[in-house]
Each structure stands twice: as structure tokens, then as C-alpha cells.
Amino acid sequence: MPERLPWRHTFISLSVRNFRLFAAAHFVAVVALWMQRIAQDWIVLELSGSVTAVGVTVALQFLPVLLLGPWGGLMADRFSKRRLLQGCAVASAVCAAALGTLALTGALAVWHVYGIALLLGMVTVLDQPARQVFVNELVGPAYLRNAISVNSTTFQLGALIGPAVAGWLLTAVGGGWAFAMNAVACLVTACALGALRRDELTVAPPTPKSPGMLREAFAYAWRKPTIRWPWTLAGVVAVFAMSLPVLLAAYAEHVFGVGAAGYGLLNTMVAVGALTGAIASARRVRLSLRTVVLGAGLHGSMLALAALAPSLPVFCALVAVTGFCALLFLTSANQLVQTSSNVGIRGRVMSLYTMVLIGGQALGGPLLGWLAEHLGAHAAMLVSGGVPALAAGALGLVLWRAARRRV
Fold this sequence. Notes:
Subcellular location: Cell membrane
CATH architecture: Up-down Bundle
Radius of gyration: 20 Å
Shape: globular
CATH class: Mainly Alpha
Distance between the termini: 25 Å
Structural class: mainly alpha
Organism: Sinomonas flava
Number of strands: 0
Mean pLDDT: 82
Helix content: over 70%
Protein name: MFS transporter
Membrane topology: Multi-pass membrane protein
Keywords: Cell membrane, Membrane, Transmembrane, Transmembrane helix, Transport
């Protein structure tokens, strides 16, 4: 951007009526989603007594994206993104209602959570690429970067409120009500999508079906450094650093002994930092590959440092800084990949990015759960941060040498 935005324009994309309605519904949905995630993970831990089981739940929820993510991007390029998002919201409401009914009647078992997590993963295959690309239809290219930052801010504000409410619900009335509230929130999202003014959408013409569409998107993404390297770093961060709730569950239960309320607090501290990072990213003038690499390196370094925290207050402070660095990385990578992609192929490119980012968590969840259970939470946290930090350092060195050769 040519200059830094005035403070009153930090969230200027909200001046667009359609995006304002979408962002409000998204905020309600994210609060409820985080309530469900925290309740789900804690209930699995209580029912099974195993951190690995929590990791398996995460894996099942993200595995479909790893296997079918590009297909979801193909659908986003070929069909109405608004209709796809409405269908996904209704399907998510049905899954949440099923979980809530089982939990409130006392019939919930671990295998129920596994099965519904897998179904939600199937919904995510379509939801994520359509949601990423739909932002451009809501605000147009002029406000795209700002709208991505607003979406991140909304998500993190929901992540700030949701875990705190979930921790209270778990101790007061049980996790079943968190699932029920998420079902209602999903229906609110579906209604909000129906209330958008369709004549004000910047709708890209659907891409006609042709052979080799996914192969074309992969080749397009790989030959652009501003897509290839964020994609690579996102894979490393996703596998090792983005299943942090699994490790926080282990710290809450086995290291600090603070129970469900403490688990909600730890997730809230991450969200506090992430919310600050999202606001900072909305005001950033320069967007470059260097920002992405630096964000990934700092994120990993802070996680590794948190593994050495001597007390709960120090640990809380460090995970808050971790959340800040994570959001700088994730928002920068998302913005760089989207703005580097042609609109006609953006759905497929973003599905590949989402496949790596979310699908990597399908591998990382069980891996970190296993490490925490067999080597201890501290060792697992050290691996979680150390590997991304080393990967970012290595990529930074490669890019620095390439720049010197060009000079």
C-alpha cells in the first residue's frame, strides 16, 4: 500500500454493507465454533484419558482436507461460492446438533466424536476455499488485503471469547450446551448469507470445466515464489505448530493441573496475542515474502521458548506472544498467496494452500499428542516450535543467497 492507513480506516472494508453483514455472522459462528472445539477436545480427554485421542480427533477433522482439498477448490472456481457456504453452514449445524444431543443425554462416546469430526472435515473441504475466495466477491480487489485482516481479527476475537465461555460451560453445565449453541450459530450464518445483496457482489465468472484443472493450478502455484514459499512454510507450521490446543490440553492437565477452566484460559491467552497480531497486520503497509518468513521464524522460536517456561504466568505470557507471531505469519501468507493469484484460478490455488495448512494439522495432531504422551509436554512443545524456526531460518538463508546472486 502506498501509505499507512489512518486509524479510523484500520477496518475500512467494513464500510461495505455485504461484508459487514458477513463479518458479523462470521464472528458469531467463530465464537460458537471455538466453544465446540474446546468442549470437544476436553470431553475426549475426559472420556479417554489420552492426549493421543485428542490428537486423533484433530486429525479426523482435518484429514479430508488433506485428501480432498483441491477438489473443494475446483468446486469454488466452478460454482456459486455463496450457495456452497450456505450448504456448508447447514451441514455444520446438523453435526453440532447431533453432538449436543448425544452429550446432553449422556450417550456421547469417543467414537461418536471421531465420526462427527470426520463429517465436519468433509464440510471443511468445500467451506474453506469458498470462504477464502468469497471475500473478494464481497469487497472487490481494492479492499481485499484489509478484508483478509478483518477476517483474521474476527476469527481471533471469537477465539478470545469462545474458549473462555467454553471453560465456564464445561465446569458449570457441561459441554453439551457448547455444541447446541454452535448449531444455532451455523444457522445464523446460513441466514446472513441469504440476506446479502447479490447485485452488489463482485462475482467472478465461473471457470468452465476442462481436463487437467488441478494440475494446472499446481503448476501455476509452484512456479511463483510468492505462492510456493508461503505454501511450503505453511506446511511445516501446520504439522508442527498449529495443533497447539493438543499441547495446551497436556499442559493444563499434566503440567500445571489447572483443569478445564485453565485449558480455556491458555487458549484465550493465545487468542489475545493473535487478535493483536491481526490488528497489526491490517495496518501493515509492506507485504513481502520476507514478512512471511520472519513471522514463521518468530512463531516457532516463541513456542520453543515457552517449553522452558518455569511457571504458569510466564507460560501464559509466552503463548500470547506466540499467538501474535502466528497471526502475522498466517495473515501475511494468506494475503500474499491471494494477491499473487489470478481470479480465475484463485479458488484452486487457495484450496492447495488450505490443504497444506489444514491438512498438515491432520498429521501434526496425532504426532504432537503422541510426543506429549510418551516424551512429555515440554519435549513436545520444544519440537513444535523448533522445527518451524529451523525451517524459516533455512528458507531465509536460501532467499538471502538468491538475492545476493541476483545483485
